[in-house]
Amino acid sequence: MTELFYDVVVIGGGPAGMAAALAAREKGAKTLILERDVRLGGILNQCIHQGFGLHYFSQEMTGPEYAKRFSDAVAQTDIEVRLEAMALGLGEDRTVSVLSPSRGLEKIRAGAVVLAMGCRERTAGAIMLPGTRPAGIYTAGMAQKLCNVSGYLVGKEVVILGSGDIGLIMARRMTTEGAKVKLVLELMPYSSGLKRNIVQCLEDYDIPIKYSHTITRVVGSPRITGLYYAPVKDRKPILEQEQYVSCDALLLSVGLIPENDLLNGLDIEMSPVTGGATVDERRMTTIDGVFSCGNVLHVHDLVDNVSREAEIAGAAAADFAMGKLAERGKQYAVVAEGDVRYALPQRIHEGGVQKLFFRVGRVVKNCRLVVESGGKTLLSKKYMVLAPGEMGSVDIDASALEGDIKVRLEI
Amino acid sequence: MDRLFDCVVIGGGVIGTAVLDRLACYDLSALLLEKEDDVASFATRANSGIVHAGYDCEPNTLKAKFNVLGNPLMWRDAELLHVPCLKCGSIVVAREREQLDELVRKAEANGVEVEVLDRKRTLELEPNVADEVGFSLYAPSAGVISPYQLAIAYADRAALNGGEILLEAPVVGIARTSDGNFEVQTPKGTFKARIVINCAGAYGANVNDMAGAEHYETSYRRGDYFVLDNTERKNVNTVIFPLPTAAGKGILVAPTADGNVIYGPTANDTSLGDTATTLESLDELKRNVPLSYKRPAFNKCIRVYSGLRTIIGHDFVIGESEKVDNFFMAIGICSPGLTSAPAIAEFLTDGVAKRLGAARKQNVVAELEKPVRVKELDDVALNELIKKDSRFGRIVCRCEKVTEGEIVQAIHSPLPARTVDAVKRRTRAGMGRCQGGFCCTRVMEILSRELNIPLTEVKKGLGANIARYRIKEVNDD
Question: How many residue contacts between A and B have a Cβ separation below 8 Å?
């Protein structure tokens, strides 16, 4: 078997992978992108709606347009792109085994590896959806791909479970295609998607959303004909208040899971909260020279943040591969407390101003985000409202740390 | 003129396909009629997939007889047919040794090798049994098999040996002509048969009624299951049963032959056709699994499913009707029906062949050609293969690492896969943790291309399509 060497191997050619590769190449690294699909762009290729790039390019564009900016930039460089190439294995020595129809199975040695595999959708099985298991149940992303890439509509009387962004986007998309979106059901008392999507995709189209509701059983075989749903209390459905709605399609938008299957069996620290690896501010995991960024690290709400995060990872990966990764100060843990569900990176080396991403676990109004190190307050920032669907970010001055960094809310 | 078959088999579950497979070794003509668009579409696709040792069957019953005979046949068939299986043994866990006494007695009566293990030896075998477990009954000949792949492999081998299979052909009537032959009516035509074998599973009693054979009252018991992510596989070594009850063998924890873990089944009395899981029974599983297994990981669930047991009295009904000559039955086949399948098939086939005076054929296919499973190939073999056919280098199902080559192979197998579910059962594409979220559309495209049908005609299974309408912008004209 051929054995190849690259300074930086980026696994995944979506927004994270492309930005990481460009940043690595910028630093002079010999860089390879492994993409399992037939083109670069990842999930952006099926996101034909507007709303991308406002932060990164100060311009609103569609997903494919945003992706094209990066794929065009990649094409301008000598970054190698291997399409239809699936990474099957990763060793702690940063050897990647990759399978592609054109080159068979190869082992590629990498000076540094950037994980940029994105995320997958939670399924009916993962949420233990009760009832029949008929045709007509789709993850929102699959329905989106069929609609926007292949040109098919999966149903005309639609119910959506979950209020993740893809589900909300698909509520609007299917409505504009002539389908009737009858109902959106959300288990939690709040949306897991962006506020703007609730307004622009549901409210603007008079699509009702019922919070604190879930499906109690799916009906119909071989095709879904309807479902029962009920309000929930303490996450348990109140069966006495079960109601029926007919439908010919059910879309699920019940969560995204970083797709870290490649790491199974590796000695790498994973976060049970984000589903991704734990990283330091350079996005290096607990395996030397293995970096992670984008939705495979933690699920983002905006692609603009993905691109920025990936640039950090890609640049650091190039430095690592070429032995230029600068010595850093002492490392401290970043600990999320109370209503802060997670903060990322999970480790910070002392020095400079650093960006912290965080998400909260429930809707919190009129609160203050407090970041402390030892007894020292690094930041105290007031928020009118923080919601789980929106990722927050703050810059903290990490030049003089006095202990582990604690991130919490004061209400 | 309607074709006259020596034998028409009704039902394409594991019993019907096993019967056709054995019949095809004889010099006779046989046709299997299945009402769905693939074999293994009901109980055979949704059960525990256990190859039972046979220690728990009431001695001197058909269940005991065919289970004990079927177990070694099953392991041999699995090898010849390349069906995923694992002879991992099973344990029945109990607090006290005495609780296992009755099973030990039955095992002796049935001639099944078992051994009572104390807690220490139980833990050596299965480190994650519940803390309350003091003893277990170990049966080394038990294990797991992929039940639907077994039925499909039986159908494939039968087809190679001249057995015929007609799908989407539900039997709607059975008449007897003056010459003594049967006329089996389906929407796809009427088929004449000298002998009819009823292997219609849940519909077995209905088929008996159509033929005027013995009338049986049937009851149905649904069983719900969880399928766990393959990362849980390392925590389970054997099939772990609780003590059996009147309702069945209880809620087990077991590896699957394909590398997952299942928890289940429940036992809920229900009616024909009900395979809907319920919140209540899923909750029951959550409460009961920890009683025998201390590491339940419900958060690693990738799928819930439900299967239907068909119960006629306390035993299988196997043999020739006393009311209708040349009408044979294998109905009421609940657990241990899967394990019993090859033995039931051999028993029935012997009877049928004698009746027809049919001799064994020379030169039948005994071993199926091993299907390519890229995941199992070593690097050198894989690269050789990809040089010949690059489609074996194109991963379609990321979770289970299934290539386009394997999917095309399934679509052109002796009994071709014609639906997304049929491809899934043969290749595991879509059976992983993303449940087809990524690969379903790719599988649909491949089916559309290979079968030369529009994407809207590609079915999930049981006749239901997935991509239903074109979007407004598209004009195919």
Answer: 157
Average pLDDT score over residue span A345-368: 95
Helix B147-160 crosses helix B14-23 at what angle (to 10 degrees)? 30
- The pLDDT-based confidence of B181 (bands split at 50, 70, 90) is very high
Query: Looking at the structure, do residues B279 and B223 belong to the same domain, yes or no?
Result: yes
Q: Are A218 and A241 in contact (CB under 8 A)?
A: no
Give the one of A101, A132, A221 whose C-beta lies nearest to B394's C-beta.
Answer: A101
Tokens of B153: 């492999």
The parent domain of residue B437 ranges over 374-465
Question: pLDDT grade, residue A2 (50/70/90)?
Answer: low
Q: What is the DSSP string of B274-304?
A: ---B-HHHHHHHHHHHHHHBS---GGGEEEE
What is the extent of the structural domain holding A198? Answer: 123-254
β-strand pairing of A137-139 with A249-252:
parallel
Joined tokens for residue A143: 């329905």
Residue A120: its chain B contacts at CB < 8 A?
433-434, 437-438
Are B192 and B206 part of one and the same domain? yes
Pick B277's closest partner by Cβ from A86, A130, A261.
Answer: A130
Check A105 against B382: CB less than 8 A apart: yes
Grouping H, G, I as helix, E, B as strand and the rest as coil, residue A38 is: coil
Give the active site residues of B.
52
The model's pLDDT over A68-118, given as tens digits with 9 standing for 90+, comes to 999 999 999 999 999 999 999 999 999 999 999 999 999 999 999 999 999
CA distance B455 to chain A (A): 9
Choose the closest CB to B390 out of A102, A120, A126.
Answer: A102
What pLDDT does residue B249 have? 85
User: How far is B46 from B44, CA to CA, in rounded Å?
Assistant: 6
- Number of C-beta neighbours around residue B430 at 10 A: 25
| Total tally of structural domains belonging to chain B | 3
CB contact under 8 A, A151 and B473: yes
Work out whether the CA dihedral B416, B419, B421, B423 comes out positive or negative.
positive
My answer on whether A96 and A15 are in the same domain is yes
ipTM above 0.90, yes or no: yes
Give the other-Cβ count within 10 Å of A59's Cβ: 12
Pick from A125, A118, A156: nearest CA to A139? A125
* pLDDT tens, residue by residue, B189-224: 999 999 999 999 999 999 999 999 999 999 999 999
C-beta atoms of B464 and A135 within 8 A: yes
pTM, two decimals, is 0.95
